Amino acid sequence: xSYRDAMSARVRSEERRAEIVxxxxxxxxxxxxxxxxxxxxxxxxxxxQQGLLHHFPTKDALLVAVLEERDQWDAVPDGRxxxxxxxxxxxxxxxxxxxxxTFSALLGESVTEGHPARAYFTERYARVxxxxxxVLRAEYGDRLPNGLTPExxxxxxxxxxxxxxxxxxxxxxxVDMPGAFQDFLxxxxxx
Length: 191
Fold this sequence. Notes:
It is built from nine helices and no strands. By secondary structure, the chain is mainly α.
C-alpha cells in the first residue's frame, strides 16, 4: 500500500468514526445511554454491528468518544474562558437542545454505580470547577464582590449552568436560560 493510499484510508476511517459519533449522539439523545444499542447506531450509519465494532470495540469506547466530541464543541481556542464567553456558551446551548439533552441525560445516568461515564464526568467536573475558579480569579481577584473566594463560587457557577439546562429542557417556554444566567452573574457582582 502506498503512502497516499494509507493516508486516504486513514482519512476515510476518521470520517467514518465522526459519522458514527454523530449517530451515537442522536441515538443517545433519543433513548438514553442504557437504551441506546450498538445495533441502532450501526443501522443509522449503514453498517453492521460488526462493522461498527471495527471503529469502536465497545459501547463504552463509543460513549467516551461522544463525550469528548461534545466537549470539543465547547472548547475555547486559547483555552481561557472569560465570563462573557460563559454567557455566550449559555446562549449557544439554548440553540442546540438535542446536544444539551444528550449531555444532561448522560450526566444524570452517570451518577449510578458502575456507569461507564461516571469517571469521565467526575474528572470533567473537577477540571471545570478548576477552570471556573480561574475565570473568577481573573475577573475579580481573590475575592468576589460578595466576599466569596473563586474556589467557593466555582461549584455554584457550574451548578447554576447545569441546573438551568435541566429546567430549560423541561420547560423551555418558562425558563429563559441566558437571562437567568445573566441574573446569576448580577448576584456575583457583574454589571
